[in-house]
Inverse folding.
């Protein structure tokens, strides 16, 4: 028999000390939630730069047993931070909660997700597709380097480092820099990369830049930003902005100087970063869902994440899932090029709209 819960919803800006303490306790009690994305500080920081960030508080016998952070757009719930969120879900003790009841209590018609922690049992019926999100284990049985893959990656990296030192001069790595000029250069390189690759420029919106700026300055005990920089002969070559929650680091935005591309600055940066992280207490690095080759070369394992939706409107929910199924079919079809060309243009347009 399902437990009866009291659910109320409030803006994240109205969280009390009781809410934050309960959130912290729930997040730290379950390793499923150890990503920085599940910290209250992340939701609070997004709320500081964008409207509509709310949290549903689930109580049982007066005790807080769960929290559901989300971004409200009309009557639809989206992940906090939208497409910038690589992990999301309901931070709760146990699985005895009802997604439809949750939406009803929040006056929501639907909740759309694409990086949901797939192990959340109440949401299994609403998952359309499962993908793998790679991570690097720095201390366990599968610690990096592992199974030959990491070793071969390090061997190539060592050769690349020796080559860089011959061709470009001495290498210097900073695990964390507070230099705002380094951050601004990373943003410029990233925008240029989006333009070259025809990918949606997520940094064209003021709130996304403001969010990254806020996070790179954060130095809290439970949540902090980390801006790592690599220099070739004193010239900035590559930058990585990450988020940290306790012993977990999430690599977030990275970019490098295009003219240094033949010297593989990204490979060198990751090599130096992974060597430095254990000394500051990091045990796992999350890389995020994506097809990038380096993620497969470095990973120790993967976390399953799901795409899908909970929808209280049967017709609208079926239509949304049908569109997704048609797009996936087109990607596998022999006619995928003519079918997907207009579809990709529409997808980029919709993605851009989702950031506004």
């Amino acid at each position: 028999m399902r437990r009866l819960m009291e659910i109320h919803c409030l803006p994240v800006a109205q969280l009390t000390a009781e809410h934050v303490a309960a959130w912290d306790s729930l997040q730290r009690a379950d390793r499923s939630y150890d990503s920085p994305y599940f910290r209250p500080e992340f939701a609070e920081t997004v709320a500081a730069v964008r409207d509509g960030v709310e949290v549903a508080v689930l109580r049982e016998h007066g005790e807080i047993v769960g929290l559901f952070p989300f971004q409200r757009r009309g009557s639809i719930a989206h992940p906090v931070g939208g497409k910038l969120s690589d992990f999301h879900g309901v931070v709760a003790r146990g699985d005895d909660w009802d997604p439809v009841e949750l939406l009803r209590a929040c006056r929501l018609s639907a909740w759309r997700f694409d990086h949901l922690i797939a192990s959340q049992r109440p949401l299994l019926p609403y998952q359309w597709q499962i993908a793998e999100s790679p991570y690097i284990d720095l201390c366990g049985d599968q610690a990096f380097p592992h199974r030959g893959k990491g070793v071969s990656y390090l061997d190539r990296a060592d050769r690349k480092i020796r080559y860089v030192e011959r061709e470009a001069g001495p290498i210097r790595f900073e695990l964390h820099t507070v230099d705002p000029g380094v951050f601004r250069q990373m943003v410029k390189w990233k925008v240029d990369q989006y333009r070259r690759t025809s990918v949606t420029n997520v940094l064209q919106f003021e709130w996304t830049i403001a969010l990254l700026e806020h996070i790179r300055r954060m130095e809290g005990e439970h949540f902090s930003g980390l801006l790592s920089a690599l220099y070739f002969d004193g010239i900035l070559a590559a930058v990585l902005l990450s988020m940290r929650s306790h012993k977990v680091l999430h690599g977030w935005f990275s970019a490098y100087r295009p003219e240094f591309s033949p010297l593989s600055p990204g490979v060198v940066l990751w090599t130096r970063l992974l060597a430095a992280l254990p000394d500051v207490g990091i045990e796992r690095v999350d890389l995020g869902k994506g097809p990038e080759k380096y993620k497969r070369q470095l990973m120790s394992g993967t976390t399953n994440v799901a795409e899908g939706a909970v929808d209280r409107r049967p017709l609208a929910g079926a239509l949304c899932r049908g569109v997704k199924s048609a797009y996936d079919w087109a990607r596998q079809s022999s006619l995928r090029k003519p079918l997907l060309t207009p579809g990709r243009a529409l997808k980029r347009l919709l993605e851009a709209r989702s950031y506004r």
Summary: The radius of gyration is 21 Å. Residues 149-167 form the longest helix (19 residues).
